[in-house]
Amino acid sequence: MLTDREVVSTLEMLKNEHLDVRAITLGLSLMDCVSDDIGRLTAKILNKVTSYAENLVSTCDKIGEKYGIPVVNKRIAVSPMSALAGPFTSEQMVKVAQVLDRAGREVGVDFVGGFGALVEKGFSKGDLSLINAIPEALAETSRVCSSVNVASSRDGINMDAVKLMGEIIKKTAALTSDKEGLGCAKLVVFANIPPDMPFMAGAYLGLGEPDAVINVGVSGPGVVKKAVDRVMAQSPKPNFDQISETIKRTAYKVTRVGELMGREVAASLGLPFGVVDLSLAPTPQVGDSVGEIFQSMGLKAIGVPGSTALLALLNDAVKKGGAFASSHVGGLSGAFIPVSEDLGIGQAAEEGYLNIEKLEAMTAVCSVGLDMVSVPGDTSAATLSAIIADEMAIGMINHKTTAVRVIPVPGKKAGEQVHYGGLLGWARIMDVADYEEAGDFIALGGRIPAPIHSLKN
Amino acid sequence: MQNLLVTIVGRDRPGIIYQVSRILADRHCNVIEVSQTTLMDEFAGLFSCAMPRGTDPDELDRVLGEALAGSGLGHWVKAGTIDNAPAMLRDRLEPYVVTLRGPDRLGIIPEFSGIMAGFEVNINNLRAVSMTGGQDGNSPQVVLFFELSVPREVKQGAFRQALNMAAEEMGMEMSLQHRDIFEAIHRL
């Protein structure tokens, strides 16, 4: 027999605390589509995606209705397309992106990730074809997302790739200048990219994964915030241990939803179940913010002193609770701090509590990196590369994933606002220390060697 | 094997279970399953027993009547048969939970239980809890929890729609969810 408390608290989480399954992503290998003929390659890609993903959206909706918990986003993540790009030019790779876009539209998903490359030690011909295709590919498609891994704890930082990606981000912004540089919102530069993340824009299917797999991304910053509010309202006030325990237990509950529904979607589609990514992924809705959790715990806003410590507690408690709730936890699994997608974080930046330097410090303890950071449109490619290099260094040395999703908004300056709309929200354009000396620094090129602790054998 | 179902209803007090189970044990009736509940100081219990051959249900009824006389407890004894049909049926049933929340009024339970009966859905457990709430915070509100067994053949969409329409008409919030989600979230 269920207790009243169990039923009511579950319904509260759904109706008032924004509990949902944020994403169910079909990871699909396209390695069997390999061809040296662009027509054959794109035909095979279209065929594989549309046949495997034909029932993805309807199955997710049916199971969402069964449990009364919506699956908000259905997505596809494919093999890194650079692996198939060897025989092709960048112009031809844009066509591949268009086919991925079309396939995504036909099956009804909102994003297709995987138009990316792994270049932590150097470039293959295919890598360069693909990377140089990114600006046009992202400008001409709406669903395709791109991620490029330029560093790892094992291999160091490919500074040539870091230089190139600064330039690619600028080009992507220029080609989407009519949409405030929105193309850059679909492009992420990574260190230590996980091969099984269900969230965009970084999702791709790593080599070593099965032919097809279902990965689930849950979320629930609103649920965590309400749990923190309840415990903070107690008398006497809780200490950090108790707050951490509360977050851990809440993360457990949220992850259980993803585990149950993800397994059922996988079983219905006859596919293996991969991982639950239990990231606290906010949206611009009120009550669905990671930033608001900081205020619940007594800080003035995210970004003031104490924020890094709090984020470390939050990130770790989420991982611990979620790890117990699922047989396989993967992806990023922790707390995101995207500036424009989170109402609390966006407001903190607007009101001057949060700057890019503090964000960078916090990325050392959160599960991603500099995410949805809007910077002045005239920021140089070299400075963007230097920002990327800093973030990659944090990831490489600390054996964690870090990433940069930065948008130089064409025609706009620091302090102005930019509105992307929908889930991508709005943001204040942040100040950046942009000096021309960055150009000579980034032009040095080569690799920052892997750290000594990479020698684990 | 003969099965007996003994129902006891009356004012709750310590010792009821002992009293009833002692009588049954003395008559070599083995209690296989018990379900009991209390509401507003009243007790209701169902005892399912396996009865040795030759036991006379009417005799047991008389003995219970004598033993419980003056205690304020009513009793009924019903003979039946244990068979495997319930286990087979259980395979074709899915557990769902309907929760209704809204202003208290006459007729909620007949309305919704009628819809459930119409879809051949069985109510395994029903609780209704009163509280104050609503927009002004002071109106009498009720929350009802129905734990259901829904046959697999039932068209989910139609069942959900029927419940939704009734809920709308009565100004209530309705949710229909598979029971597994509650267990997954709250139980290890």
Model description:
The complex is a heterodimer of chains A (457) and B (188). Chain A is an alpha/beta fold. Helix content of chain A is 43%, strand content 16%. In chain A, strands 1, 2, 3, 4, 5, 6, 7, 8, 9, 10, 11 and 14 form a twelve-stranded mixed beta sheet that branches. In chain A, strands 12-13 form a two-stranded antiparallel ribbon. With 188 residues, chain B is an alpha+beta fold. Chain B has helices at residues 16-26, 57-68, 85-91, 108-118, 156-169, 180-186; strands at residues 2-11, 30-39, 42-51, 73-81, 93-103, 122-133, 139-151, 173-178. In chain B, strand 2 and strand 3 form a beta hairpin. Chain A binds chain B through residues 1-2, 4, 6-11, 13-15, 65-69, 253, 256-257, 259-260, and chain B through 97, 99, 125, 127, 129, 143, 145, 147, 156, 160, 173, 175-186.
Architecture blueprint of SSEs:
The complex is a heterodimer of chains A (457) and B (188).
Chain A: H1 4-15, E1 21-28, H2 38-52, H3 56-67, E2 71-78, H4 90-107, E3 111-113, E4 117-118, H5 125-140, E5 144-152, E6 156-158, H6 159-175, E7 187-191, E8 212-218, H7 221-232, H8 240-269, E9 273-277, H9 291-296, H10 307-325, H11 343-350, H12 356-363, E10 370-376, H13 381-397, E11 402-409, E12 417-419, E13 426-428, H14 437-443, E14 447-448
Parallel strand pairs in A: 1-2, 2-3, 3-5, 4-5, 5-7, 8-9, 10-11
Antiparallel strand pairs in A: 1-8, 5-6, 6-14, 7-11, 12-13
Helix pairs in contact in A: 2-4, 3-8, 4-5, 5-6, 6-13, 7-8, 8-10, 10-12, 13-14
Chain B: E1 2-11, H1 16-26, E2 30-39, E3 42-51, H2 57-68, E4 73-81, H3 85-91, E5 93-103, H4 108-118, E6 122-133, E7 139-151, H5 156-169, E8 173-178, H6 180-186
Antiparallel strand pairs in B: 1-3, 1-4, 2-3, 5-7, 5-8, 6-7
